[in-house]
């Protein structure tokens, strides 16, 4: 099995480590990885969330995208023969503004090798809200807006399904990012009904297959105090594998020491 970390970040991430991306690669090489994907958060539309300090943390500025691409391509060249580096982005599904994302990546269509398509935002109080910012912000801006966790979960998975329909046409290798990010703050919020979650995940499997997308087996939730589990349940991972959906481990590392975090969980979950 190819040892591949398919979801990681760089110093271009405003809410991560300023460490050089080479430090992530050195850690990955020590851990025996064969392939390493950098998938940074690309720019967002101006004023996407109505919180200027938060906006500055969420993604790189528009003028930084060309230098990010050059930066990762430089690493790809300098580490050739040591580890395969692939050039990627974690592209947000932007309800009502998919045109922005389409135009953003169009100039790089022949340079991008991987896209992680993720749902980080839901309509909420005052406009778009970031669902993985803080438990207090989730409660005030999203839970109070929808009135119950059941309605929030329905809205989240509706957006995931819309993201799959949109991303099916993106001309690059792609995966659905952290399919259970909605559980990041599960221990700090009202409980989610497991049967509801399982029903929505079951609906997603054929849509994943039809879209030609793989699955980001994201282990970051194991490192989150209010979650404590991967953002993909084992049964869903195993069902996706049985469906022939490509399932790629992703540490979602925002600092070098996490470049292989959760790999043991992944190996056990896929029965290796």
From TrEMBL:
What NCBIfam families does this protein map onto? hisJ_fam (TIGR01856), PRK08123.1 (NF005996)
Q: Return the EC number.
A: 3.1.3.15
> Is Endoplasmic reticulum tagged as a keyword?
no
Answer whether the UniProt record assigns the keyword Amino-acid biosynthesis to this protein.
yes
Q: Which InterPro entries match?
A: Histidinol_P_phosphatase_HisJ, PHP_dom, Pol/histidinol_Pase-like
Indicate the segments forming the PHP domain, all copies: 7-220
Top-level EC class as recorded in UniProt: hydrolase
Instruction: Return the PANTHER family for the record.
Output: HISTIDINOL PHOSPHATASE-RELATED, HISTIDINOL-PHOSPHATASE
Q: Which organism is it from?
A: Paenibacillus aurantius
Name recorded for this polypeptide? Histidinol-phosphatase
Name the Gene3D superfamilies on file. Answer: Metal-dependent hydrolases
Return the similarity comment: Belongs to the PHP hydrolase family. HisK subfamily.
Q: In which pathway does it act?
A: Amino-acid biosynthesis; L-histidine biosynthesis; L-histidine from 5-phospho-alpha-D-ribose 1-diphosphate: step 8/9
Q: Name one GO biological process term.
A: L-histidine biosynthetic process
Keyword set, alphabetical order: Amino-acid biosynthesis, Histidine biosynthesis, Hydrolase
**Top-level taxon in the UniProt lineage:** Bacteria
Q: Name one GO cellular component term.
A: cytoplasm
